[in-house]
Amino acid sequence: MPLHLEPLDVIDDLAELSSVLIVSCPVCPPVSLAMQRGGPWIDFFRHGVKTEAFERHVQEFRDELEERGVRSAVYTPYVPSPMMCVWTRGQRTRLRRRAEHHDAVVVMGCESARVSVERALIGTGCPVVLAMELTGLTNALAGFELPLTVHLDEKELVDEGSGDRDRAVVPPGS
Predict the structure, then answer these.
(1) ∠ CA 145-149-150, rounded to 5°
(2) Residue of 14, 23, 17, 10 whose CA lies nearest to 105
(3) What residues contact residue 1 under an 8 Å CB cut-off, 6+ apart?
(4) Is residue 174 included in any domain, yes or no?
(5) 35 versus 118: which is more confidently predicted?
(6) So what's the pLDDT on residue 163?
(7) Angle between the 111-120 and 89-99 helix axes, to the nearest 10 degrees?
(8) Rounded distance, CA 59 to CA 75, Å?
(9) Three-state DSSP class for 45?
């Protein structure tokens, strides 16, 4: 059950900085962007385990930062735990070392991912900016095509926050 996350516009909040480290969770954000923008979730031979729609979003974000004179780098941990909400101490230590060279850290993930980053950076004074917001839960049927492509069919955004059972169904192929 991936969380459904929508990108936030935080570029103006970062415009006065020299450099930011973008930390991205490789689970919920890619599923969310694949659902929102269309295209496969995983196209192994073209992009490996990365999702084209999410990678494009991160690159567009970096391009906007660069236009404003802000350097950026990206850090995405895959092992031993890909989800930022259940990082190991070693993953937190590696993030802390990477963040030392930046003015702020931008989290492409959920609130729990933000908490993981903040805990890793305790005592550094490095600000953490959340760049996505939770809008519901993603439900989809995974479809497989050769060679090693996974797409999302019967996509559905389940709105658990409102207390009702209305669902915003995204038609197949969109």
Answers:
(1) 95
(2) 23
(3) 137, 138, 139
(4) no
(5) 118
(6) 47
(7) 70
(8) 13
(9) helix
Q: Which two tokens stand for residue 172?
A: 């197949």
Per the structure, the complete domain to which residue 83 belongs is given by 3-169
Query: Hey, what amino acid is at 13?
Result: D
Q: Which residues contact 32 (CB under 8 A, 6 or more apart)?
A: 2, 3, 4, 5, 6, 54, 132, 138
CATH number of the domain enclosing 16: 3.40.50
Number of domains in the chain: 1
- The burial class, CB within 10 Å (0-12 / 13-18 / 19+), for 73 is middle
Confidence bin at 45 (pLDDT 50/70/90): confident
pTM of the shown model? 0.84
Q: Which residue has the tokens 């660069």?
A: 66
Contact 14, 64 (CB under 8 A): no
Compute CA 73 distance to the chain's CA centroid, rounded to the nearest angstrom: 14
Tokens of 13: 């909040």
